[in-house]
Amino acid sequence: MIELQNISIEFRTKDQVIRAVDQASLHIGTGEVFGIVGASGAGKSSLLRTINLLERPSAGRVRLDGRDITDLKGAALRRERQKTGLIFQHFNLMHTRTVFDNVAFALRVAGKQAAEIAAHVPEILDLVGLSDKVQVYPSQLSGGQKQRVGIARAIANHPAVLLCDEPTSALDLETSGAILELLKEINRRLGITIVLISHEMSVIKTICDRVAVMDQGRIVEQGDVYDIFARPEHPFTRQLVDRTFNLDLPERLTANLQGTLLKILFLGERAEHPLLSEAALRFGISVNILHGKIEYINNRAIGLLVALLGELQECSTHAAHITEPLTGRIAAAVDFIRQGSARVEVLHA
Ligand SMILES: Nc1ncnc2c1ncn2[C@@H]1O[C@H](COP(=O)(O)OP(=O)(O)OP(=O)(O)O)[C@@H](O)[C@H]1O
Q1: 8 CA from centroid of ligand 1 (Å)
Q2: Could you give the count of Cα atoms lying within 13 Å of 338 in the half-sphere of its Cβ?
Q3: What CATH architecture applies to the domain 2-243?
Q4: Antiparallel, parallel or unpaired: β 33-38 and 210-215
Q5: Where do runs of H (alpha helix) occur along 1-142?
Q6: In this structure, are residues 318 and 236 in contact, taking their beta carbons and an 8 Å threshold?
Q7: Structure letter (DSSP) for residue 230
Q8: Residue among 8, 11, 90 whose CB has most ligand 1 atoms within 8 A, to mutate
Q9: How confident is the model at residue 316 (pLDDT cuts 50, 70, 90)?
Q10: What pairs with residue 263 in β-bridges?
Q11: What is the pLDDT of residues 101-116, one digit of tens each?
């Protein structure tokens, strides 16, 4: 559906050349929800805007539906652009026009007749949940409602692709969730391919099937969202994923740790096995869970636990016969946990 091949984008200012995107390649399939994530200035917007050639690449090719559109101009380019809709972080609505007119404008530009526009706009506004706001002005709408108008306008001409530039960054958490839900529904019901950029992994995990991670103009990693969360390889991706899981411990807990502190990753069904209690019994140690979280990404579980392995406070019946020193038992327990989980990181020994 969308193929970006070795895209580089350079901006020339008076005294320097900024390479915003550096040899980025992507392939996005029909009907996918594809995310591009990265810090501010990573090159996400520039790359997104090459898909409909709002930004022309300095090098590389853009293919839409198998057709190379990189060199298109004028009417041919405008026709190709009709296949894409675009929504923005700050909605970009016309404030002196009603909700109806904001959406109608997109249809008028595409050459639709008044009768068709009059019939179609209410349908689209119904789809995005704004049937009761048809004659209202944008200033009378909440942020979430404004973005719904932005979405209605973007899908009015039945595009094959919806490009979303940080669509929820200006919204609170709850509204953001509702907008992502609406985008997902549009993807499912209308089969529109969605490309969404965000600086938050939490947005990506809520809606995307696959993701590309950008750092300083380069795509450093891409793949299935679940796999990227489960096994982030690039240090920048790891940082993003860690921030999403947010497993930081309060200083009070880390100041006087007695024992071995582990961060344990469980994937899928393995998260359901009683691995830690088995380790405790087998090796006669205490296992104290200090932090933990299970995330479900595309209905598959990723569990992360921070656990402290240490000496049992009292001699339990299970441990009474254990004579091996604590360090040996903990080392054996770490091995045992390592075998039964996806990854173990020793945070403190
Ligand atoms: N028109 C322009 N002229 C000069 N430099 C630009 C232009 N547009 C973008 N840049 C620069 O290119 C780099 C990438 O910008 P871009 O907006 O694509 O990144 P981004 O990841 O989308 O960032 P943000 O999340 O802050 O929008 C930045 O260093 C930016 O300053």
Answers
A1: 13
A2: 9
A3: 3-Layer(aba) Sandwich (3.40)
A4: parallel
A5: 44-50, 74-81, 99-109, 114-127
A6: no
A7: H
A8: 11
A9: low
A10: 306, 345
A11: 999 999 999 899 999 9
Nearest to 270 by CA among 339, 348, 198, 345: 339
Q: Which residues contact 327 (CB under 8 A, 6 or more apart)?
A: none
Global ipTM: 0.96
Minimal-distance CA residue to ligand 1 atom 31: 41
The residue whose CB lies within 8 Å of the most ligand 1 atoms, and thus the one to mutate among 12, 21, 44, 51, is 44
Question: Per residue in 206-254, pLDDT tens?
Answer: 999 999 999 999 999 999 999 999 889 999 998 898 888 887 777 777 7
Side by side, which strands form the sheet with 33-38? 84-87, 161-165, 193-198, 33-38, 210-215, 218-224
Q: Are 54 and 28 in contact (CB under 8 A)?
A: no
Domain 260-348 - what CATH class? alpha beta
Query: Which structure tokens are listed for 318?
Result: 């299970």
**Location of structure tokens 């390592």:** 338
Residue 165, token pair as written in the block: 């530039």
Q: Phi/psi of residue 10, each to 5°? A: -120, 140
Residue with token string 């920048």: 236
Alpha carbons 28 and 272: distance in angstroms, whole number: 34
| For the chain, domain boundaries | 2-243, 260-348
What percentage of the chain carries pLDDT values higher than 70? Answer: 97
> 247: exposed, middle or buried (C-beta count within 10 Å: 0-12, 13-18, 19+)?
middle
The mean per-residue pLDDT over the stretch 289-295 comes to 87
